[in-house]
Amino acid sequence: MGIRVIKTAAAAIAAIYTAYYLGLEPPLSAGILAILGVEVTRMKGLQSAFSRFLASVLGLFFASFIFTVLGFHYWVLAIFILVTFPVLARVQLKEGILTSSVIVFHLFDHGRVDAAILGNEVMLLLVGLGWATVINLVYMPKEEEELNARRADAEENFSSIFREMAHTLRDPSHVWDGGELLVAHRSIEAGTQLAIRYRENRLYWNDSPYWPTYFEMRRQQLDTIQQMLAELALVYEKWPQGELIAELLDGLASDVKADVYVGVAEQRVFELMASFRSMELPKTRDEFEIRAALLTLLHEVDRYLVIAKRLKKKPETAKAGTA
Predict the structure, then answer these.
(1) Model-level pTM?
(2) 187-to-173, 215, 216 alpha-carbon distances in Å
(3) Residue-level pLDDT at 223
(4) Domain boundaries, the chain
(5) CA-CA distance, 136 to 226, in Å (whole number)?
(6) Which CATH superfamily is domain 144-317 in?
(7) Distances from the Cα of 206 to the Cαs of 199, 214, 296, in angstroms?
(8) Chain segment 97-107, per-residue pLDDT in tens
């Protein structure tokens, strides 16, 4: 918020001085328009400036016609609002309603419609929204450091979850509160919002970073981890197959922080599934239930790895975790 306030102040004062220099009336209105035009991302700033300018021009057109026909009376402003606002909303220019109102009320204050007044209002728009766009394009805060922090938080909590799951498989009496799940969820949600802002600060699609894909991958993987935990809750006794899966989870606890997914864990999952198929059938109900839960857990691990394989970044350009 501090950076946006500074940007808003810079855009407003630049617009006011420019309007004063050009002899526009009132110059302070250019500052108001600049304040309305400052946004949090470059892409949103361009879209906002275009929408506000187009909405204001349309507003001037409707207002000029209405004021000329009905006169400059206060009740006519209500007619203008009733006619114009629904039209702007229908053509997806709702964002420009406030800007349009500022310009139209200036026109109403003049008490007449002529080319000089309309030109003055259009120039106020160009100066105010123009400076807001310039400030939006010149500087946007860099999110790289915070994105890396959110990535590190998510990966550290994923790693802790896998270690706790492995511990539980080796010792079913182990008690764990699962707090890492909530922390990981918050990190992923925060990272997702930052990634969207990061992408919108890049004007070209080819310059779009990997971050949105990375946090989407982590979100999907967190869903599979929750399914793993649901199956793990059904494992109430220690079994040899559980020890093998625990070793796999220990490997994932390290692999989750790796930059490139190489498929070692995937091969291990394949081998474990093959060993399950070659085992004798369960002899007791308890053995059947536990082995079924372990096999389902293994399938969820496989789904976790499939997500990484599908959404991973190419090895030669990897800058975000993909395992």
Answers:
(1) 0.67
(2) 29, 9, 12
(3) 94
(4) 2-138, 144-317
(5) 41
(6) Putative aromatic acid exporter, C-terminal domain (1.20.120.940)
(7) 10, 17, 40
(8) 889 998 999 88
